[in-house]
Amino acid sequence: MAIDPQEYRDRLSKTRARMREADLDALLVVDPANLNYLTGYNAWSFYTPQAMFVDHDSTPVLFMRAMDADGAHRTAAPGTCTVIGYPESLVQQHDRHPFDWIAQQLRDAGHAAKSRVGVEGDAHFFPVRGYLALQKAMPEWTLVESHELVNWVRLIKSPAEIELMRAAGKVSSRVMSTAIDAIEVGMSQAKLAAIIQEAQARGTEEFNGDYPAIVPLMMAGPAVDTPHLTF
């Protein structure tokens, strides 16, 4: 289902309102789900550093490696952010880090004057090296834990988001019924997982499916008491 660009503008407005409540001059968003929420960007690129800088006045800036910046231009909703790709030569180097480069871009753009900048310290894809590089390159900043600021904005759903959730529920129901119908005595978990994953991608006649956030988890046999084992 397509999301109206106004949805993204509303989400950014609500995020900035919470930033003001938290007395933040800017926010560095790194959680892939939050980047998608604020821009629509959706790609398997979070294993290398990426971040979006949000302040109260300017267009947010989304930084990621150069090869992924092309994907951001194609999936991020128009007007939600400016996309900048950092050089591929910075990826997985022991003597330099992409956040060194990102910090310099922000400094050159005049953002060093910001004082309290929120960071998503508990996000899975915000490496310690990135945090330290940012801290070293921007000594003027006081880095403040944002305590899932964008996540709390996401908690309150708009009518359009509720409709999207209903569509996802229909896809999930189809997946569950497909899995239940397919289970047979002696079936390998791998075969059942393949059926489940096909149903997840296929969706319904009305709504396309998608890749899920996690692989199928199967509680079977002696491991029935262990909810998070992969198949």
How would you summarize what this structure contains?
The protein has 231 residues and is an alpha/beta fold. The protein is 44% helix and 12% strand.
Describe the structure.
It is a single chain. This protein has 231 residues and is of the alpha/beta class. It has 2 domains: 5-155, Creatine Amidinohydrolase, Chain A, domain 1; 159-217. It is built from 8 helices and 6 strands, in the order αβαββαβαβαβααα. The protein has helices spanning 5-21, 32-39, 66-75, 98-108, 128-137, 149-155, 159-182, 189-202, and strands at residues 26-29, 51-55, 61-65, 82-86, 116-119, 142-145. It has a 6-stranded mixed sheet with strand order 4-3-2-1-5-6, with helices on both faces. Helix 5 links the parallel strand 5 and strand 6. The mean pLDDT is 95.
